[in-house]
Specification:
Order of helices and strands: EHEHEHEHHHEHEHHEEE
Strand content: 15-25%
Structural class: alpha/beta
Low-confidence stretches: none
Distance between the termini: 38 Å
Bound molecules: adenosine monophosphate
Radius of gyration: 19 Å
Length: 287
C-alpha cells in the first residue's frame, strides 16, 4: 500500500469520545470489529470485510480480563499498540477504540450476560468464565459504538455462535457477519497467541491443522465414526510430546451437541495446550 493511501486512524479511549465520533457517522453505515489486538492477517481480513461493507469502520482493541480465569494467560497476552495502529492506518480504518479496563468495567460493575446451552460444550467446559465475559463485553461494545454491522471470525466458532444467539435473543439491532478462518501458509490457524510459541512449539502446533486435514480425508474415504476419528486426531496430536489435548469435539455446527457419526454438516473443533498457549482450531465437513 502506498503512503498516499494511508489515512490517519483516530485513537480514542473514552466512551464520550467514541460516541461523539460515531454520532457524526449517523445516516451512514458503521461496522465494528472487536479484537484483543496484536493484529494479524486473520483480524485484517475481518477489518477488510467491514471496510468493504460499511461507510465507516471502528476497530476495538480491548484485552478483556473477564474472559480469562485466574490460571489463564491474561498477563502474557501479546500486545503492541503502535504496530497495530500502523496496520490499521495502512488499510484506512477510521477509528480505533482502545478503552482501558476501568472504562469498560468501572467500580461497582455487576452485570453479566449468560447465554445458555451452547456454552456448555467445547471451550465452555474448561473455560467457565469465557463466554460470560465475551457476551458481556461484546454487548457493551455494541451499546457504546452502536454499529449496524459487526464482524467475527469462524476461528472462534463457538464464540460466534454465542454472539449470534445473544444478538437474536436480545433483539440487538446489529447484523453479525461470519468471516472464514485464515491460516498461515503452513496451515497453522492465525492467532495472536502463536507469538508466545517457541519455534519448536510452533512446529508441534501444526499437528492441529494436520489432524483436521487427515480427518477430512478419512471422512472422504467413508470413515464416519466419531469415536474412530477422535482417536485418530488424538494419535496425531499426542505424537508431539508436550501437547495437552483439552477437547476434540465432533459436533453439530449449530447446537454444538456431540455427534456419534459424521452425517451431514459437521464441525470438528479442537483445543490443545502447547507451552504457554492454548490453541484452538476447527473445520467443517459435509455439505
Ligand atoms: P481476538 O483478537 O483473538 O479476540 O480475535 C478478534 C476477532 O478476530 C474474533 O472475531 C476472532 O474470531 C477473529 N480471528 C482471530 N483469528 C482469526 C483467524 N485466524 N481467522 C479469522 N478470524 C480470526
Amino acid at each position: 500500500m502506498t503512503a498516499e493511501l494511508k489515512q490517519q486512524t483516530v485513537v480514542v479511549s473514552t466512551i464520550d469520545e467514541i460516541r461523539k465520533l460515531t454520532d457524526a457517522f449517523r445516516g451512514e453505515t458503521l461496522g465494528l470489529v472487536p479484537t484483543m489486538g496484536y493484529l494479524h492477517d486473520g483480524h485484517m481480513n475481518l477489518i477488510k470485510q467491514s471496510l468493504n461493507k460499511c461507510d465507516h469502520t471502528v476497530v476495538s482493541i480491548f484485552i478483556n480480563p473477564r474472559q480469562f480465569s485466574p490460571s489463564e494467560d491474561l498477563d502474557i497476552y501479546p500486545n503492541n499498540l503502535s504496530r497495530d495502529i500502523e496496520k490499521l492506518e495502512s488499510i484506512g480504518v477510521d477509528v480505533l477504540f482502545y478503552p482501558n479496563r476501568d472504562t469498560i468495567y468501572p467500580e461497582g460493575f455487576k452485570t453479566n450476560i449468560q447465554v445458555d446451552g451452547i456454552t456448555q460444550h467445547l471451550c465452555g467446559k474448561s473455560r467457565p468464565e469465557l463466554f460470560k465475559g465475551v457476551a458481556t463485553v461484546v454487548l457493551k461494545l455494541f451499546n457504546i459504538v452502536r454499529p449496524q454491522h459487526a464482524f467475527f471470525g469462524e476461528k472462534d466458532w463457538q464464540q460466534l455462535a454465542v454472539i449470534e444467539t445473544m444478538t437474536r435473543d436480545l433483539n440487538i439491532d446489529v447484523h453479525i457477519h461470519r468471516v472464514p478462518l485464515i491460516r498461515e501458509p503452513d496451515g497453522l490457524a492465525m492467532s495472536s497467541r502463536n507469538s508466545n510459541l517457541s519455534p519448536e512449539e510452533r512446529k508441534k502446533a501444526l499437528s492441529l491443522s494436520r489432524s483436521l486435514n487427515d480427518s477430512k480425508e478419512k471422512v472422504n474415504r467413508g470413515i464416519t465414526s466419531s469415536k474412530q476419528l477422535r482417536q485418530n486426531i488424538k494419535n496425531i496430536i499426542a505424537a508431539e510430546p508436550g501437547t495437552q489435548i483439552d477437547y476434540i469435539s465432533i459436533c453439530d455446527p449449530i447446537s454444538l451437541e456431540e455427534k456419534e457419526e459424521v452425517k451431514g454438516r459437521t464441525l470438528i473443533a479442537l483445543a490443545v495446550k502447547i507451552g504457554p498457549a492454548r490453541l484452538i482450531d476447527n473445520c467443517i465437513i459435509g455439505d
